[in-house]
Amino acid sequence: MDAIDSKPAVPTQTSNLSDWLTYLENLHTQTIDLGLERVQAVADKLGIEWDGVKIIVAGTNGKGSTCAMLESIYTAAGFSTGLYTSPHLNVFNERIKINGELAQDQAIIEQFDRIEKTRGDISLSYFEYTTLAAILLFQKANLDVSIFEVGLGGRLDAVNIIDADCSIVTCIDIDHTAYLGDTREQIALEKAHVYRSHKPAICSDPMPPQSLIDYAQAIEADLWLFGRDFNYSGDKQQWAFAGRTNRRNALAYPALRGANQLLNASAALACIEALNLKLSVPLQAIREGLLLVNLPGRFQILPGQPTVILDVAHNPHAASVLSHNLEHMSFHPYTYAVFGMLNDKDCDSVIQKLSKDVDYWYCVSLQGPRGQSAQALAAKIEQLIEKDDEGLPQVRTFDNSVQAYQQALQDMNQNDRLIVFGSFLTVADVLEHIRQS
Questions:
Q1: In this structure, how many other beta carbons lie within 10 angstroms of the beta carbon of residue 436?
Q2: 3-state per-residue secondary structure call for the chain
Q3: Nearest one of 379, 391, 388, 310 to 351, comparing CA atoms
Q4: Quick check: 161 pLDDT over 60?
Q5: 46-65: pLDDT as tens digits
Q6: Nearest-angstrom CA–CA distance, 79 and 73
Q7: Which end of the chain is more exposed for a tag (fewer CB within 10 A), N or C?
Q8: According to the model, what pLDDT value does residue 181 have?
Q9: Are 407 and 362 in contact (CB under 8 A)?
Q10: Are the C-beta atoms of residues 251 and 293 closer than 8 Å to each other?
Q11: Which of 91, 89, 114 is nearest to 103 (CA)?
């Protein structure tokens, strides 16, 4: 009897997107496999050059918001746009947007099929494969501007094969230490590799590590630093941006909520100013783009009562920002939290950042090899946070985010608030439940 072939069946253009994604998940042995050799070799075979402006955005937190603002502003200015982000919350198509619309299944499948027929015996990771598909879709659409969010780090991330016209590094903090290093200096150097010689290189971190500055200078990038080359000011009604040559006054606050959104908006406006000779953007388009920008899961406050907040905060810096945002909201007697995290994240620090904000922790288990059990999270909370005179915080465990969310809504009063946070997976499950309800 012939041996059974263990290789997954190769989908075709008539296969559905779900079949393709399952195939990609099993195609490469490592989920995260940093390095540009494989993806660059396939990109060279495919021929991925087009004339449109290309922007790369890296950073520990804030890169998704910065990308969304850039897309919204350039769209408002009348330019054709592409946006590539990761991960997605509910459907894969969220990762690839063209002119504000999610890429259609068949369009994605056609590029997957093209990559599969071109790669030969070169193995590609899921992220490398999908990055190439986004590039091909943007190339085919001949877009004015394409915006790419780095998945992890910068130097060895698949997005870094793109010859960017402008690159942005947002805030820099400790995350993904197994891949990027365990200091801000090491992590900043990894992210700084998205910068290009003699091209605008923007950093919106208020305290950029010296390694980033040194690298930008070594490659002779045109480095724009927050506080030196661009800045912002504001009051309760409006804010203003100041760049090297332009000042944008009387701007409405971005539709995205949270303490760091003006920092992210400033990075976007610095990029727009730096690229002004290629893509001229009027002030009205900036105002409109900031008002209309939308990004689910970033301090997203749902309408109605009780107050429900969705936030994908999954590292200490993001948790600190979430805590700051919660403290600046109106008074709520008690705060409930649906909380789930992956086991390769700094759970202890995240818990400590929110220790004074949460009264009732509803811990949830996340599936998959990186998922952490609700019981493990609950044990950490019990160990790290001392109970007060009311016996708070109280901790409960649930099998999944939706169970915890439904129970929290039953337990809390209309004047209390609920935050759902800790991972994209935690927020995605609850968001999908809400959409289907």
A1: 7
A2: CCCCCCCCCCCCCCCCHHHHHHHHHHHCCCCCCCCCHHHHHHHHHHCCCCCCEEEEEECCCCHHHHHHHHHHHHHHCCCCEEEECCCCCCCHHHHEEECCEECCHHHHHHHHHHHHHHHCCCCCCHHHHHHHHHHHHHHHHCCCEEEEECCCCCCCCHHHHCCCCEEEECCCCCCCHHHHCCCHHHHHHHHHCCCCCCCEEEECCCCCCHHHHHHHHHCCCEEEEECCCEEEEECCCCEEEECCCCEEEEECCCCCCCCCHHHHHHHHHHHHHHCCCCCCCCHHHHHHHHHHCCCCCCCEECCCCCEEEEECCCCHHHHHHHHHHHHCCCCCCCEEEEECCECCCCHHHHHHHCCCCCCEEEEECCCCCCECCHHHHHHHHHHHCCCCCCCCCEEEEECCHHHHHHHHHHHCCCCCEEEEECCHHHHHHHHHHHHHC
A3: 379
A4: yes
A5: 998 888 999 999 999 899 99
A6: 9
A7: N
A8: 64
A9: yes
A10: no
A11: 91
Dihedral over alpha carbons 431, 393, 397, 90 (to 10 degrees): 10
Cα 116 to Cα 287: distance, rounded to the nearest angstrom: 42
Binning pLDDT at 50, 70 and 90, where does residue 235 land?
confident
CA 393 to chain centroid, in Å, comes to: 30
- In the prediction, which pLDDT does 32 show? 66
The angle at the Cα of 63, spanning 304 to 369, to the nearest 5 degrees, equals 85
Cβ partners under 8 Å of residue 319, min gap 6: 313, 349, 350, 353, 354, 421
Q: Is the separation of the CB atoms in 420 and 426 below 8 Å?
A: yes
- The whole-number pLDDT of residue 176 equals 57
| Token representation of residue 140 | 């085919």
Comparing 9-13, 172-176, 225-229, 280-284, the range with the smallest average pLDDT is 172-176
Nearest-angstrom CA–CA distance, 404 and 397: 8
Question: What average pLDDT does range 84-93 have in this prediction?
Answer: 94
| In contact, 152 and 179? CB cutoff 8 Å | yes
**Amino acid identity for residue 247 in this structure:** R
Is 420 a residue whose pLDDT tops 70?
A: yes
- CA end-to-end span of the chain, whole Å? 52
Q: Residues 376, 367, 157, 209: what is their CA dihedral angle, to the nearest 10 degrees?
A: -20
Distance CA 411, CA 407 (A): 6
pLDDT at 182: 72
- Rounded CA gap, 264 and 272, in Å? 13
